[in-house]
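Field reference: "sequence" (input) and "structure" (output). Example, Nitric oxide synthase:
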Amino acid sequence: MKNWETNQDFRDTLHVKACPINRCNPEKCNGSIMQPPNMMRDPRDPKPSMDSIKELAKDFINQYFTSMKRNDSEAHSSRLAEVLASISSTGTYELTKNELIFGAKTAWRNAPRCVGRIQWNKLHVFDCRKVTSTREMFDAICVHLKYATNKGNIRSCITFFPPRNDVKTEFRVWNSQLIRYACYRQEDGSLVGDPANLELTELCMRLGWKGKGGRFDLLPLLLQANGEDPELYELPANLVLEVKLRHPEQDWLEQMNLKWYAVPAVSNILLDIGGVEFPAVPFNGWFMGTEIGRDLVDTSRYNMILPMAEAMGLNTKKTSSLWKDKAILELNLAILHSFQSDNVTIMDHHVATESFMKHFANEVKLRGGCPGDWVWLVPPVSGSATPVFHQEILNYTLNPSCLYQPDPWQYYKWKDTVMVKRKNKLHFKELAKSVMVTSRMMKKAMANRIKTTILYATETGKSYAYSLILQEIFNHAFDAKVVAMDQYDICNLEYESMLLVVTSTFGNGDPPENGEVQTMLRLFYDVNNQPNMAASAKNYINILNYRKPRKRGVLRRRFQSQLDVSRDFDSVSQGLLANVKFAVFGLGSRAYPHFCAFAHAVDTLLGELEGERVKEIGEGDEMCGQEECFRNWAQQVFKAACDTFCLQEEVNLEDANASLKSTKFDKSNFRVTVSDVQVEPNYVETLSKMHRKKLSPCRLIRRKNLQSEKSGRSTILIQLEKKNSDVLNFQPGDHLGIYPRNDPALVKALISKIRDATDDSTVVRLEVQDEKKTFIGNFKYWDADTRLPSCTLTMAFSRFLDITTPPTPQLLKLFSECNVNEEQSTALRILGQGESEYEDWKFSNNPNLVEVLNEFPSTQVDASLLLKQLPLLQARYYSISSSPDVYPGEIHCTVSVVTYHTRGGDGPLHHGVCSSYLNSITDEEEVPCFVRMAPTFHLPTKEDAPCILVGPGTGIAPFRSFWQHRISQIQKGDRTMALLFGCRNPQQDHLYKDEVETAMKQGAISHAYTAFSREEGKPKQYVQDVIMNDISEFVFDLIHTRNGHFYVCGDVTMAAEVHRTLKDVLCINGGMTPEQVEEYITAMKSEDRYHEDIFGVTLRTYEVNRSLRLKGKEKKLSMK
């Protein structure tokens, strides 16, 4: 196929997949026929054979799974077998929701006569296949029009009514378009209105409708359901947006009182999706100006060309004056001007054809071709001035397809023949009463259709809690569901209407455990065809460093009042998520250098895939105002979503926002009873089920204090036996996740404060009251709550529930209702608001649950409240400190035993939950463990790649596994692995000193440097000082000249200082500018040569917390 303007050739190979029916032959061409046989489906014709339906179904299912890159998968084979079996038994099959969406978009993509197909992937689908009456059809059409109109910012959408099984039971919209103007035959034979609708107008009048006799009277809808006689429904005026036509410079057109409707919703086409026919599928895009111009000037339509020419003062006596051309041109100019002035979407024929050519080139590249009907694609005005005029195009039909069908009155056999012959005024009046759609009906209709998926990724459970709150507010107008990110099928992503993501960030900008590469990162490399974890990790780093996501959707809304005819029509391609609206909220701590980094990465990715942001990303800092930030963001994103889906008039925002502060615990519906079986569960197996993780029990082999007795602090080496468990297979650099046990003394103190506590040996179970509906009535019954197993209170508070984290505002609000005296109840309610009072109280006291109950001693708390409302006890992570090659069957951790006083040193003594647990376990106790992969912190794949390891304090932990691995892999040749370790005093806390010396003798470590910050008689020296002052040239040579790897492990403050120091080293030794240094370090991260393993603030001292909190407050104030 040649383009005669550019002299460029295209090759079409897609046509070999076309449907075989084509009536053209060597003797004649049917290219100009309006309804060619290959695009016509008449229900009076014989039904397709079962074999042909199977062939179409098989091809469609193959297309669907290929589009998701899951062809030849087990799901593909299973679904195809299911479809073919259904056709064999019933003659047809039912499309899934996702198949329906894919089929609708592909049918538009395949439509050879549509010039606006570049928008095919932005089509919104309303699935109304379950309607049973014309009333339900009418409600759905009202929803369609309201969504599509969108106050003039027209959106493409399609509504599916039930498919055709038999012509006698079919659903049809008898109107050719949802919005059409009537036509009245006068006594003298002349016509007033749009002659294209004369037949339908007269039919409506026979059924009792009385028009006003004007040129632009809206026709009622004539709807048919389940093969019954059609019924009339008049569209509410507020659902039909019309534009009065006027010329930008002359007043002659305004005086003619012409107007046109904004939404071209075609309703008489048939969609064939894999052999399933849908005869009632109203569909709309937006107008091209010449379409309206033709409707007004064609002699078979309004025939306004002569009156317009005369009003313009043109010479209509001879055709050579080109009066017709002038009139048509000025009319088209006026149409564009009118729509743009009213902020209603429209496009001119030049933009439309240019966008089609980009779509055409893209389709040839992606699919090997693009079907097109040249006769229809070339606009009726200035055809040769548009690029499509010069392009050779093949015209063929692909399935899924958009087809023509005869008007239903041509073949329909009326059930009520009397009704056809007389004007049934009473019948129409009854229908007229049901015309106005109430707000309640609209709200219900929208809520039943718009699904909202809330994905969460969490380490501590807070993202999940916030997701439930978000679900609560969104259920006021949407059908919202909450799904863990690792439980979500990523193939459903492109079919979502509204997607909300709530995620925390782990460590150095890493995704939480259930937001790992298996889910969002998998999408990163699926999109870029990167088939392995390492590649996805690199791509993630690139996105992580891209901190300013595109604001395409936001900019589009911001300038919607200045819509340009070229807005968004010239996109070369449509992204995977072009039809998905989304918003992201990130939880994090400014104690980390990459605050909310994973949330930003997800937000950027969704934007890069052309998803539309309904709200900018929200951030919640655990150091300051996280609750308040989340509530404000949730209110804003809910309002924005309601505006996007045209629900703002049907939703009470005050009621919805109130749900953010409400508590949903009714103590009368929960109770704790003695279990029938007095046997406690295996806590390792129970934790595995609760957290959906494969856990393996480990036992203590040895525990050794690595610090001297003089240090006053404790760092321990924990050696665990892993019993050759495959669950605990790991590589050096990975993390060990451990589910700890709460302090027994703290558990005992808590149980003593519970009003209805049982003794230590009694196994109890939490029960919830449910209601069952039966044919004889409803009755309530008690059933076991699935959150926790039957166990003793001691086990529940020791193993399963978090009792050390400060209670949430919601829990404090519940405490205020537990028979508390008035003074303490008021104080608890104030804290329960989650505002600044709560933040200050939490920061000052950092209280555990027992301390809260001590502060408010009149609180009479029930066991059921705590068992249901307390968050689950989460795993703690430690860098693995051993190599499986050196210690097979074992797994080691280096643990700093955490103890600190709250309130700046004046408060009660707190113990780290997991470090204290590991410091007290015996060799008889099973430790629930699992491995968390850290692919960005592994040793280089090339064994001889030079490395420098920077790890002060317990930051040395993963590097012990590194040098052990190198010892086991020792070969001849020069290898550089330099270790830089820092501690306070060489005599007190120089961890693994002897092992490092041994590793140096064996050649595993080439260089060892130390920094001591508390060495007597010497100035303080930190690892960054050694880098800058002692080994600057060595570091530069290693990472720049020799392309070595740079590893940092430790707390955030140290990591930030080392990062700044490394930039100084590159500036000084490499002569780089600050900008070049930033680019170089970013490149190192992208190339997987800069590795950080950051574990944040471990000892939550008053000074550190105060500094970070003040920074958080400053940031919060700056954002207001």
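The first strand starts at residue 2 and ends at 3.
DSSP finds 36 helices and 38 strands in the chain.
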